[in-house]
Protein 1
Amino acid sequence: MAKKPVRIKDIAKAAGVSIGTVDRVLHNRGNVSEDALKRVNEVLDKNEYHPNLIARSLGSKRDYKIAALLPNHLNDDYWGLAYQGIELAKPEWLHYSVHIVAYEFDPDLASSFQEASSKALKSKPDGVLIAPILYNETFPFFKNLADKAIPFVLFNTNIIESNALSFIGQDLYHSGRLAGELTCLGQTGEGQFGVLHVDEDLNDSIHLVQKENGFRDFIAERYPFTHTIVSLNRTSSSDFSFKKKLANLLSQPDLKGIFVSSSRGTETAAYFLKEYGKKEIRMVGYDLLEKNIAYLKNGIIDFLIHQKPQQQAIEGINCLANHLIFKKEAKRVNLFPLEVITSQNLESYIANQAEHTVINISVK
Amino acid sequence: MAKKPVRIKDIAKAAGVSIGTVDRVLHNRGNVSEDALKRVNEVLDKNEYHPNLIARSLGSKRDYKIAALLPNHLNDDYWGLAYQGIELAKPEWLHYSVHIVAYEFDPDLASSFQEASSKALKSKPDGVLIAPILYNETFPFFKNLADKAIPFVLFNTNIIESNALSFIGQDLYHSGRLAGELTCLGQTGEGQFGVLHVDEDLNDSIHLVQKENGFRDFIAERYPFTHTIVSLNRTSSSDFSFKKKLANLLSQPDLKGIFVSSSRGTETAAYFLKEYGKKEIRMVGYDLLEKNIAYLKNGIIDFLIHQKPQQQAIEGINCLANHLIFKKEAKRVNLFPLEVITSQNLESYIANQAEHTVINISVK
DNA sequence: GTGAAAGCGCTAACAA
DNA sequence: TTGTTAGCGCTTTCAC
């Protein structure tokens, strides 16, 4: 039978000191004599002590605040899901005295981000979760956080130089490659593929470029000579030149597939495919948003790659909270699997995501 | 600022009784007067009390034993993964005084199952996790458990009449439909498909039949008249008639795809596909076993449907443990999403499954 | 520098 | 039928 884990009390006895002293060396709070320190450490590493995190959280009366910074979720289903994730995590972590507050900003307005981020800072959070979709604006904010020694976690978009505690998201290059694979599958002969970016500023959105690169690389490997790729970029919903170019692309008889690089764009592109009666063209897009689901069901869309915004947000909160209250070290990079959704496994995803356990505490 | 959760003490005060009494009604341990019961319940449902599970587990000094019954994992990678899951859950739950012991049996030997199950029973477990792959043998065991009022959870295979606390697994009919979709994708013209069952006794394995039904139904809907389906069943590795029939099938010029219904069979079928130089034939199989992964990488296999044996086992343990120590009610049916693995998203799955949080406590 | 002690929210044994 | 109390393993305060 497995034996009981050793407790602070045990090592205190073994070292001939009080539990207070052991606690002090455990958290290097100082105020402990050379001698005691040595004795405790000796006992410590021959007994391999694992703190009981449960008891730790109960015993500690400290409150923690986590600020979550993300684009406004009204009128945006993708960020709506992320927001949902945060709302789900909220009541769960409250039991551990972790308070989560969301600060939302307009992703098209730098000033809005600055406002939200300074509000977040003013609340003196112990940790920050952030979707850094405005590259230029977030950078000074990171610096600010670093100066104040506030740990922060990135999700959705990675900024490698940020020195964040953790990044949670997907490998976008491989996401693009996967899209390429799904687009090519079973296609024969010559032809062309379209890559669509919709309503995103490509200069600020390296992430979409990464997807396109992955897509292009895969196609180039699979069909070195026979296929061409057309990339279209809609800058805003009133961009008429896009509409014309798209109409032209869709009228090509050898068009074999369309890849849309974002979840919002997916809906737009699907709409046009339907309008032009191009149901049979292979189409790959992103995420289980309501409209996308409808297009997947009626066969306009063939594959959706699931970015799991909700779970990303939850994981982000969990990562911070575990770090703060349990002192758990975070994975520097937490890449979610690239999940493929089709009309036939869609339901199994929907049924499952509804209610799913939120808090994740690893006791190790 | 979110307010503190209400505690037992709070509702005791509000109801004008002691915390002991509240605890009694919370766990309906009886010994509480009509009057007190009513008052406590009133306070209870107007204050929506959520117990602090952390404190609960700390406070309870009870030990729990969970027995896990599953096929021997030596020489079987699929069950090896399930076993791994159990091993992962072990140390995590130990902190909550839950002891997990695995009892393995030879899936081809009824007597072996009986031996393992009676051993498990003798350990007087508080809960049992079981992969009921031997339909006939498990039934009396379920009865035995029910008589002793020991809760049990099924995973991998569902037996609806078992009256289990929960079933954890996938919807196999839809798994088959998904396989059908993936097999058809991009295929044109007439042709035939093959369904392969390898080394499983179909009489005892309704689950494989469910997959085949899903597959057939999907194909019939998609191609009502143009495609035929051939079903082959290998009863043992020395079944020569199978080899001949398979060779014949593979030599058909209009063979468009192969669906293998089990993870072990997947490897076998892939081997033959490679031997016969039929790399271009669409092939769909199951699970991220080492060999299957290799065949996926080199293009013999096109899709693997991921049954997540490891996570199923972990979820099963979590379900039982949460039920036992936290009195959480379990989902009667916990269907995992049907995950699609291709050569391009494979790595994202492998990287992710390595180390992933195990314990899942929902505080709600 | 150190130890003793209170308390986190809960369970369970024990008195009353 | 009740209320009281002693823990669970840890943190944190406070006196020595």
Protein 2
Amino acid sequence: MPSTDAPTDTPWLDAAQQGVWRSFLGGVTVLMDQLDRDLRTQHDLSMAEYEILVRLSEAPDRSIRMAELAAALAHSRSRITHTIARLERDGIVERFQCSSDGRGVTARLTDHGFTVLERAAHTHVRGVHDYLVAQADPADLAAVGRVLESVRRGLEGRHF
Amino acid sequence: MPSTDAPTDTPWLDAAQQGVWRSFLGGVTVLMDQLDRDLRTQHDLSMAEYEILVRLSEAPDRSIRMAELAAALAHSRSRITHTIARLERDGIVERFQCSSDGRGVTARLTDHGFTVLERAAHTHVRGVHDYLVAQADPADLAAVGRVLESVRRGLEGRHF
DNA sequence: AGCATAAAGTTGAACGTTCAATCAACACCC
DNA sequence: GGGTGTTGATTGAACGTTCAACTTTATGCT
């Protein structure tokens, strides 16, 4: 039941909103899970790794600085360091000192990394299409985009 | 570019669909992250733990069998075992043998667990409201519910 | 009944993420 | 121009999830 309640009074959700939230949570869980599993079993890549490769592949010189990667993917710097370290060990990415900023490190996609990405992309895109895009009415899909974009904007630069 | 390409030909996404997918991914990442962090810092609970408590609290006798929990949350059995073990150690949940099925184990929310949940709910619900519900046009929100519900149904009982 | 198979749950190791601490390079500024 | 604070990146430990075994109990078949 709503109203004056706790620390500061809590905006309880009505039944419809609760339903949306539950569907959202369930759908997201199952979707991310499946996409991740597909990439892992078929290409030995996690979704996080795959997303990094995508960003790198689109960037000029196929390279991006660590902090920018972190910001773009909303991952912690530490996570990016660990992940890039793994990718480097596997010859998918290389790391080098940034010339303009002595602290900076730039990650670049290797040629091998690029071909790995090319192959993985088929799997991933098929997944996104089959599990999400094909399930949804196009107008609903657009709504999903709007909502989540606005969520991201509302939350960006928080992280404490 | 589309068409005859790979293993079996891949249904590439157009620009709008890609945009939706990117917003989706970014929004989900940042949203889940923030909700999780809120619960962790203020109540020492992960979202996964919180979700378990919610389900238990709604069930008759505040108890559910492990496998049902796993199915309801789309988590692996193993994950449920570990998580419940932690919650049991903290006195939030208790575990006992199921009478009807010799293999079965039932988890029940303790009284203490219930009060923990009551407090955490304020934080969580406020988060869902502020970060998601308040950001979105109600019609768009309904669309989100429809889409993700259909995603879940399309994918349920996969897990291999 | 008796054997094979499946389902429920647990276990421990491996892996990936988080968190706090650390170090180096840059920026400011008085 | 030498503190003071900030930003970029890394490190290692702690934590949580996954994965592949494994145990136990139930189910199905003939």
